[in-house]
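Q: I'm writing up a methods section and want to include an example of the input and output format. Could you take the sequence below and give the corresponding predicted structure tokens, formatted cleanly so I can copy it straight into the document?
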Amino acid sequence: MNHSNPDSILTMDQVREIMNGKAQKKWNIVFDDQNSSTARYVLDSINQGQPLPPNTMAAHSNVEVISHVEKDKNAIGVIGVNWISDTNDSTAIEFSNRVTTVKLRADGYTDYVKPYQYYIGTKSYPLTRECSISSRSHARVWDQDSLLFSPVSPANW
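A: Here is the clean output for your methods example:
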């Protein structure tokens, strides 16, 4: 979100209204690509198959999303958390300095949180998706207790 936009704390109801075009304020929604996984996630998981509003545009990259949001105070950019979360990555640091990361409140929660690993892991950050990996060879399975990947033999499945 543009730094000058005062609406940097949103509920999931507000996110749903923005993404389906029913918000009182006119937002300009920006994705990196019309067929990106983030656009599909919004269509499937937030809009429940309903189309995005006409004020939605696709830039050609995440860099262009950030540039557009930086210039348009009514824009809200939708990018993957990996583009802003690595505090040791110069690109992520630059992006975070150019735009404001929105705090969200998940349905049933009271706190507004940014997409930090802890909040994603505890599901208090609401915009997450599951990832499953299938393999015919030895695989690594997420062990939530130790927060490590551990090798698992297919014989133990």
